[in-house]
What we know:
binds 3'-phosphate-adenosine-5'-phosphate sulfate, mainly alpha, Rossmann fold, two-stranded antiparallel ribbon
Amino acid sequence: MKWQKKTFLVLTVICTVSLLLHHGGHFTWNMEAFHSSYSHQSTGTKPKHTNIVFLKTHKTASTTMQNILFRFAERNNLTVALPVQACGHQFCYPRSFSSHFVHLHTLRPNLITNHMRFNKTALQRLMPNDTIYITILREPASMFESLFTYYSRHCMSFRRVPNGSLEAFLAEPLRYYRPEETESMYARNTLTFDLGGDKDHPLKDLSYVKNFVAEVEKVFSLVMISEYFDESLILLRHLLSWDLEDILYVKLNMRTESSKKRLSPGLPEKIRAWNSIDAYLYDYFNASFWVKLSELGLDSVAKEVQLLRQAQERLMRSCFGGKTPLPRAAAEIKNKDLRPWQPSDKVDIVGYDLPVNLSQEAQEHCLKYIMPEISYTRILLHSQSLRHRRNYQNRPPQKSHTLQQHIRTTLPRHSQVHRNPPAPSVVQSAASGTESRSTPKQSEGTTKLGL
Ligand SMILES: Nc1ncnc2c1ncn2[C@@H]1O[C@H](COP(=O)(O)OS(=O)(=O)O)[C@@H](OP(=O)(O)O)[C@H]1O
């Protein structure tokens, strides 16, 4: 009897320790178990779509979305078009996008997502024919408050305002705003500008706005809405035949509560009047967004959102040991790659750190969820450059002039396919600016989607 009691006790201790290790903590994170818990949430047998333009608009949760796309690209060994060094981490924004801004080691891309001013013609030449275009919009009042605070030091229209007062700016915007200044796109109709439109077009010319909206609708298969980010991801998942695992995320680029201004009564209306084209755009696509959700079935969307949030919670527990990663002031973050860019000492952008004692496997996986845009762009450029060089060196000389490259547009499910490297002839001529198929010269200052 005594012997049986002892055995029982020993077994109980072993089970408890094992349970704690597997479920209670993030210290022994099990990649296989993690993946298998999502893999059944797929959209069926359709291959995943991989050729995507995501127009990264400003202050719309676009960094969170970009991070989703970067991770998808890495997992599936895809090529992301990235900016040349001279452009910084954006495609020479606010200039209109040109393929000359694309780093030659990232040519023949599947995806493009870094900030740019949209130019349909240039993108169509750069990207495969079956590319799907996606963008995101945010409600103009909260977006403008975010822009006003974030760019208070960088945008002259905002710097001129006494005491950085949003109320003062909106009382007499034309007193502070100069349309010709380089950073003026942050101060009026930013969404319209990012989409290649004319931010200063008079609203009384309603036909311009209607045509502009119609063009956006023609090009973009999905216009996500920031306020309904999770619902937008469900639409995205269906559009691209992605799995639930592909749309998991951590919120990035958030301001701390103390960095936000409260909008006093009447201000949202003034913001909408000042940004009237953006307001029109938002209202239109917010309405069509709900039509799309209804087509999918509101109940089924709600169920999928619930599944997404449960999966997020599991991810957060596995990676960060809590409901969300612990927000940190940038200076407190030990790993410098994880410090988000701070626009000024008056605005705090939240960043995250990884918990200590995380296993190597978990570190690699979890790190990318919280990687800020600038660091991730740099890391991705580095890894893609290495791959480019490797492929270029290993390529047999007789095959080096094949221009008819196979560009993968969809992915077989649950497999890693290695993509053909870009043909050296294309890369070399693109670098010298003479390759006419994918690197045309673009005129700037385009309106109406750069047409
Ligand atoms: N998932 C999700 N859902 C809703 N909102 C979110 C999400 N992720 C980020 N955010 C908010 O988006 C704002 C940052 O936007 P961007 O990343 O597009 O900014 S940037 O232009 O790239 O600097 C920033 O808004 P503000 O905090 O109001 O500035 C973030 O809090």
